[in-house]
Known about the structure:
The transhydrogenation between NADH and NADP is coupled to respiration and ATP hydrolysis and functions as a proton pump across the membrane. It is built from three helices and no strands. It has about 90 residues and is an all-alpha fold.
Amino acid sequence: MELLLLITxxxxxLFLGVELITKVPPTLHTPLMSASxxxxxxxxxxxxxxxxxxxxxxxxxxxxxxxxLASINVVGGYMVTNRMLAMFxxx
Length: 91
């Protein structure tokens, strides 16, 4: 039952994330990436908790996948934000 709840939350989060990103115009993707870092950080903490919960092999594997993807998202978001801020620095 707990696994079903975790999978349901994962699918709903995935669906909402895709809907959010596809409805945003491309000119707003950089500021959106900066704002999504906080959400990705929360996701990363939840994924770490799921991966280390010891609730089963499937939960651990899904938690590890979530940790990997959230980490990529956070690092990429910071890189994009850094490049965006570099455009406004004086030379």
